[in-house]
C-alpha cells in the first residue's frame, strides 16, 4: 500500500468524521475508530494505528480533527505509554505483542508506567538489582522500583530486571512487560515536596511474568532500554508547544498584566529567559523533524537538559517577580494526581515541582556525560566496572 500524502490524509480524516461524528460517538469508540483507520500515529505501520506515512504529516490529521471538535486521547495522562512504551513495543515487540498492547495504549484504556529506577540504581541504572529468574515458561521477579510515575493508575509496566548476575552489569539485563494488577505487585505513594504523591515506590515479590511478555532477547534488555530512554528524553524535552507555551507563559502574562511588579533587573532576566525558551522550542521542532528519519539519538539528552534548567530558572524568576505573594502555596492536599499540571497551578507549585526536572527522565549529570561523549565526541570517563561481573561489584 502506498503511503498517503497530505491530501490523502485529509480525505481519510473526513471519512472518519463522517462515519463517526464526534457529537454522537462516544469518546472511546471514536478513538478506537481513529486507531483502526490508521490516523492515530500516521507514521506507524498499517494495522498498528498508522499508514506508514511520514511523521511530519501527523499535524495534518490533528488539525482536521481539532477543527471538528473530535476528542483526543489525553496525551498528558498517558505520556509514558505514548512516549516510551509504544516506540519500544514497535521496535522490539513481537507481532502478537504489538496487536495486543498498542491499541488500548493509544486510546488510553490501559495506562502504562515505567519500572526502571531503584533505590540503589538511579543515575547508574545498569547497576539495578531487581532479579528475574526463569521458571519454566515464566520469569519470577523480586525487587523494588522507585520514582514510578502513574504506578497507582497503571495497568501495565515496562520493566527491566537482572537475569544474569555473572556477567558485567549492562549485559545481564532483560526487558519485560509487567502486569500491575498482579497481587504480588505492591504500589506505595511517595509524597513529594509539592504535597502530593505523583510518584510511587513499587515492590515486586515473586511476580510471575510469562516469557511471552519479554521484549528482545534474554540478556539484551539494556539495548531495548536505550530505545525507551532516548524516546523518554525527547518526549520530556522536545514536546510540541506554542510560542510562550510551557513555563514561560505564566510569568510573561504576569509581567504584562501587573506592571507594578516590574524592575529593570527582572526585565533583563525575563528577556533572556524568554529568548532561551523560544530557542529551546524551535530546537525541539527541529529535533522532531529529525525523527522522521528514524529513532531519536543522544540529541534528546541535550533538549531534556535545557528543559530542566529553563524550568527551574523561569519558576525562580516568577517567584521573585511576585514578591511576598510568590511565597504563598495554594494547596498542600495529599492526593495522587493523574498528571503533572505545571501551567494550571500557582507559582509556588511550579517552583517546587520544577526541582524534580533535573532528576526525572535521567539526571542532568548523566545527560551531560551523554552529550559530552556521544554528541561532542569527548573522551569517555574511566570505568573500572566495565569487565566486572555484576555480582562482584561493590554495593
Features:
8 strands; 395 residues; alpha+beta; 11 helices; 40% helix
Characterize the structure shown:
40% of the residues lie in helices and 13% in strands. Strand 6 and strand 7 (199-210) form a beta hairpin. Helix 6 packs parallel to helix 9. The protein is an alpha+beta fold and 395 residues long. It has a four-stranded mixed sheet with strand order 1-4-5-8. A four-stranded antiparallel sheet has the order 2-3-7-6, with no helix packed on it. It is globular, with a radius of gyration of 22 Å. The model has no long low-confidence stretch (mean pLDDT 91).
Topology:
Layout: H1 6-19, H2 27-36, H3 58-67, H4 79-92, H5 95-107, E1 112-115, E2 131-135, E3 138-145, E4 156-162, E5 173-179, E6 185-190, E7 199-210, E8 214-215, H6 221-237, H7 248-257, H8 264-290, H9 299-322, H10 347-353, H11 364-375
Helix pairs in contact: 1-3, 2-5, 4-5, 4-6, 6-9, 7-9, 8-9, 9-10, 9-11
Amino acid at each position: 500500500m502506498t503511503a498517503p500524502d497530505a491530501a490523502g490524509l485529509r480525505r481519510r480524516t473526513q471519512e472518519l468524521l463522517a462515519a463517526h461524528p464526534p457529537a454522537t460517538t462516544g469518546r472511546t469508540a471514536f478513538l478506537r475508530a481513529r486507531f483502526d483507520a490508521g490516523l492515530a500515529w500516521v507514521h506507524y505501520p498499517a494495522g498498528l494505528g498508522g499508514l506508514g506515512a511520514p511523521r511530519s504529516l501527523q499535524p495534518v490529521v490533528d488539525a482536521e480533527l481539532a477543527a471538528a471538535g473530535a476528542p483526543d486521547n489525553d496525551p498528558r495522562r498517558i505520556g509514558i505509554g505514548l512516549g516510551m512504551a509504544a516506540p519500544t513495543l514497535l521496535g522490539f515487540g513481537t507481532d502478537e505483542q504489538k496487536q495486543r498492547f498498542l491499541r488500548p495504549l493509544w486510546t488510553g484504556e490501559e495506562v502504562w508506567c515505567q519500572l526502571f529506577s531503584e533505590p540503589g540504581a538511579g543515575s547508574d541504572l545498569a547497576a539495578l538489582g531487581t532479579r528475574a529468574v526463569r521458571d519454566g515458561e515464566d520469569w519470577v521477579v523480586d525487587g523494588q522500583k522507585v520514582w514510578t510515575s502513574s504506578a497507582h493508575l497503571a495497568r501495565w509496566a515496562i520493566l527491566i530486571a537482572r537475569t544474569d548476575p555473572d556477567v558485567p552489569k549492562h549485559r545481564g539485563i532483560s526487558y519485560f512487560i509487567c502486569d500491575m494488577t498482579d497481587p504480588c505487585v505492591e504500589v506505595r505513594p511517595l509524597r513529594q515536596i509539592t504535597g502530593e504523591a505523583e510518584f510511587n515506590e513499587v515492590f515486586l515479590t515473586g511476580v510471575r511474568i510469562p516469557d511471552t511478555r519479554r521484549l528482545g532477547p534474554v540478556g539484551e534488555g539494556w539495548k531495548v532500554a536505550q530505545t525507551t530512554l532516548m524516546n523518554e528524553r525527547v518526549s520530556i524535552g522536545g514536546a510540541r508547544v506554542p510560542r510562550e507555551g510551557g513555563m514561560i507563559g505564566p510569568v510573561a502574562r504576569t509581567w504584562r498584566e501587573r506592571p507594578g511588579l516590574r524592575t529593570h533587573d527582572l526585565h533583563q532576566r525575563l528577556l533572556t529567559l524568554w529568548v532561551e525558551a523560544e530557542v529551546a522550542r524551535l530546537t525541539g521542532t527541529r529535533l522532531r523533524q529529525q525523527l522522521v528519519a528514524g529513532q531519536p539519538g543522544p540529541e534528546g539528552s541535550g533538549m531534556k537538559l535545557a528543559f530542566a534548567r529553563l524550568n527551574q530558572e523561569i519558576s525562580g524568576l516568577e517567584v521573585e517577580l511576585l514578591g511576598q505573594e510568590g511565597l504563598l502555596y495554594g494547596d498542600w492536599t495529599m492526593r495522587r494526581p493523574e498528571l503533572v499540571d505545571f501551567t494550571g497551578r500557582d507559582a509556588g507549585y511550579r517552583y517546587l515541582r520544577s526541582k524534580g526536572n533535573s532528576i526525572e527522565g535521567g539526571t542532568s549529570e548523566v545527560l551531560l556525560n551523554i552529550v559530552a561523549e556521544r554528541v561532542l565526541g569527548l573522551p569517555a570517563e574511566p570505568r573500572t566496572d566495565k569487565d566486572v561481573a555484576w555480582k562482584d561489584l561493590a554495593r
